[in-house]
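Example record

One chain of 338 residues, shown exactly as stored in the release files.
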Amino acid sequence: MTSFKIFSQSDILNLVNTRKGETKLGERVACLGERKAISTVSLKRSSAKFVLLGIPEDIGVRANYGIGGADTAWKPALKAFLNLQQNPFLRGEDVLVLGEFEISENSSTDVVVLRNSVKEIDDLVFPIIQTIVLAGKTPIVVGGGHNNCYPILKGASLAKGGAINVLNIDAHTDLRDPGEGRHSGNGFSTAVMDGFLEQYRIFGLHQNYVGESQLDFIAANGNIKAAYFDDLLSSGEEPASALQTLLNGVKLPLGLEIDLDSIIGMLSSAATPTGFSLNEVRNLILTARKEFCYLHLCEGAVQLKDGRSEATTGKAMAYLISDFIKALRPRNAGQPSS
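Predicted structure tokens for this chain:
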């Protein structure tokens, strides 16, 4: 059903628009080249701190009764990122572009079939995340549905030797009943149940989209806390300040999840007319002051199955990826690189 394609240098350069007198990130990023397997040894050979990979699928979204299309964001996001400028603010050498999962199209409308497929994807994703983290690298994962938070958490947890913690910038909890079968709405509850997730922080949760069963789940688990977007509106508190309050006492290792449906105007199955602006989310990344152990961008789309499209989704995701790298590897603005 699924395989992983390791990118060669030619795969990467085919996405780069070269220009005389300029250097793009894609001309400097690392790759594994012609290797046929991913190992901690091969990853450790690279000096890159960050490992970028894609999970282009929408099976988990459709298994949660959502609109398909989350499989369309990865390649535009990658192309936009690779065509950013190499300069003192951002260096391609810090990134290894690993590749992408090649997931067969599943056109079924039967949620049982789709949920079984999501479980198969879980089992294929987590070993690669585990290998990346064991190599001392920081995964940057572009989806794909939010179902993929589970195998990312599982892989990182197994590599770290214990449950990890997560900040999720999201309009939804994704704490639905794991007994329903795997889908994009129960990745975090499944990770809690399986012992891979300890402290869970949800930032920007919308009161209109949290069910009583999810509220009961939160109330019964002292390691789960949420900051509601509605409360931010009524209090007038700056998001960055509210985030620091929410993260108070949260331990490392800490992963960062960003569901694109938390951002106004971002195309996704659950696109929202109210929420954070793109600049507010960028500010949260740049000012969080946390050594995140991974970044997961999910639910974004360039083309939805209902016909809606948005060409700028990939570029927006490239901004978020570059902000994450800059926040973890700060540089002196304007100073020439050594």
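Notes: The chain has twelve helices and nine strands.
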